[in-house]
Amino acid sequence: MEIVPLAVVLIFVGVVKSHNNDEACETLPSEIHIIKEEFDELGRLSRTCNGDIAVNKCEGACTSQVQPSVITPTGFLKECYCCRESFLRERIVTLTHCYDPDGVRLEKEGVATMDIKLKEPSDCKCFKCGDYSR
After folding, report:
1. Looking at residues 81-108, what average pLDDT do you find?
2. CA dist 131 to 79, 81, 82, 121, Å?
3. pTM of the model
4. How many domains are there within the chain?
């Protein structure tokens, strides 16, 4: 009786492994809207700045597989891969639309813009899901 399940497992594994060339993880341009609030030493809102910023994002599909297993409690061994950043670059962007707490646009130098630091992907790859050690 043990020979029949083993034969089925070998055939199934062969079919799953034949689809490993489907990876399409890419670094793509994107745009996000950022709103940043600044507070004074008493915790009161002093200004709000916002802007549309061009950034990179990771997008795509990575090959994952499920195969029968006599070792795992569920009877299946899952190998999941996700598209995510392999390297982040840090850059400073300037938000150019700043307003006081009443919604009046700030024009005075020094408060009319706000520089913020952000990290964005500069390269994306397929990684085993849940593996953050890289």
Report:
1. 95
2. 12, 9, 10, 17
3. 0.63
4. 1
